[in-house]
Amino acid sequence: MDYFELLRCRKSTRKFSEDQISQNNLSDILAAANSAPVGSNLYKDIHLTAVQSRDVLDRLSEAAAKRWEDKAKMKEIIGDTPNIELSQKAFDPFYGAPTVIFVSHREQDLQPGIEFSNVACITHAMHLAAVNLGLGSVFIWGVLEAMREIPELDNTAVLNLPDGFKPLIGIAIGHPAAELSARDLKADKISINYL
Description:
Structural class: alpha+beta
Helix content: 25-40%
CATH class: Alpha Beta
Low-confidence stretches: none
Radius of gyration: 17 Å
Shape: globular
CATH architecture: 3-Layer(aba) Sandwich
Number of strands: 4
Number of domains: 1
Distance between the termini: 34 Å
Order of helices and strands: HHEHHEHEHE
CATH topology: NADH Oxidase
């Protein structure tokens, strides 16, 4: 797929079929993660956790489901978004995706803040790889944020991370419920100044 066609088809998928992705697709997506740029070439500071266990995803969902019950908090986060129903009964922060990859980073003292750039580059590489494979994907932030907000429901231990690593972002991946389609690219969504 041509790069700009890839960008036209890229979107956040929030509805997936139940079909698991193939092992080849997972391998390709993980290879894309490993091709992403990382500050100072410190790949040893990154850890990926590929989760395909519904039980693990359900455990990780507990804090997000509890936060979802706080209608005032959710309205503050998502605003008046017409396509999101705050009274949703079966809340799944992973949108039914069969695979979620968490990107964790070793805690930083030497270059504080670089961890966010690193995980963003890695996650974006996986996002584009998924599109190229005809898969849907969406960045996952809220479930991790909810576990930080509700420490008694922080189930990140189920990720079996190496010591000193924290999950900073995730990406849900699967077969989209609706086929990916191209859209127009807009060049005016972000303000730009020229010097």
